[in-house]
Specification:
Number of helices: 10
Strand content: 25-35%
Number of strands: 12
Largest sheet: 12 strands, mixed
Number of domains: 1
Shape: globular
């Protein structure tokens, strides 16, 4: 089934070239069906790239998904033009006028800044508070996962001695059997790119939170007991070359950067990396949409 987006969104051409069923607004208007309404608060500087990555994964279900892209009104964007944002994004103030089945809040390159010093922190807190009554399930990614755990449950973040950068092994928490991880292998891989972490003891101390999976470095997928919020510490949505692009970007700027762990064949950055997490990402987003959103959300938003 299709994903519904604006007909001139740049991601449309990329997705269509991959044989992903994309439905434009005009065609969707003729169908007597209520699609899932998903809002995406895109905090990443690479707007178009992140859009494509998430839309690719959200399209891989039998469900029609209606996407709204959200921008922060209190933030001055340097990597996207006002024309682009005005054309494809709605301001967060508009978000508060609606209800949605699902919400995704992306990561952001601000993890080394205290939460309260991020220029859009209050605005983001307003969105997180609003989501508790107006969103059926919210997915927090990377920095947003740490931000959500901190704001909603008081879970702190901790600085790492070295950037966690590469592909890391994860496994399902013993004793947990959750629909979100249905079909997962015993060991699954996830890209990570961050300078901070959360600790398992802080999660386990809160009765409202459940650790679903972990790695040697700590919890990787956490949820609330009622499934209304899911926190993912990594970037399952990343393309094959995303970590490579990040590595060479910093390397060419003479910034300190280590070779991503278990990413380049033979740890040789001149070799083409392989995707080892694509099927996991596809399954995860499919499970989230199906089990945590579609099967639980009411047909009438007022319910």
């Amino acid at each position: 089934m299709p994903i519904k987006i604006q007909s001139d969104l740049p991601a449309k051409k990329v997705l269509e070239s991959e044989n992903i069923f994309v439905m434009t607004e005009g065609r969707a208007m003729t169908q007597d069906i209520r699609p899932l309404k998903i809002a995406v608060v895109n905090l990443m500087p690479t707007k178009s790239t992140t859009e494509t990555q998430l839309l690719r994964l959200l399209s891989n279900t039998p469900l029609q998904v209606d996407i709204s892209l959200i921008r922060m009104e209190s933030h001055a964007y340097r990597n996207a033009s006002d024309e682009y944002l005005d054309r494809f994004y709605i301001p967060s103030g508009e978000l508060f006028k609606h209800k949605y089945d699902g919400l995704i809040i992306t990561g952001a390159p601000v993890e080394q800044i205290p939460f309260e010093q991020v220029d859009y922190w209050k605005e983001l807190c307003d969105i997180m508070d609003w989501s508790k009554e107006n969103i059926f399930s919210t997915l927090y990614i990377c920095w947003a996962a740490q931000a959500g755990l901190y704001h909603l449950f008081g879970v702190p973040k901790y600085s790492l001695p070295q950037k966690k950068f590469g592909i890391f092994k994860n496994w399902q928490q013993e004793g947990q059997s959750d629909p979100l991880l249905r079909g997962f292998d015993d060991i699954f891989l996830m890209p990570q790119s961050r300078h901070t972490q959360i600790h398992a003891e802080d999660i386990n101390a809160n009765k409202n939170l459940v650790v679903l999976s972990q790695s040697d470095e700590g919890p990787s997928i956490i949820k609330t007991q009622n499934n209304r919020a899911v926190f993912v510490t990594g970037h399952m949505e990343y393309d094959t070359n995303t970590l490579s692009d990040e590595y060479w970007r910093d390397k060419n700027k003479n910034l300190p950067i280590q070779i991503p762990q278990d990413y380049f064949p033979g740890d040789d950055p001149n070799q083409k990396p392989l995707s080892t997490w694509r099927s996991t990402a596809s399954l995860f987003y499919r499970n989230w949409l199906n089990y945590y959103v579609y099967q639980e959300t009411p047909y009438n938003f007022t319910d």
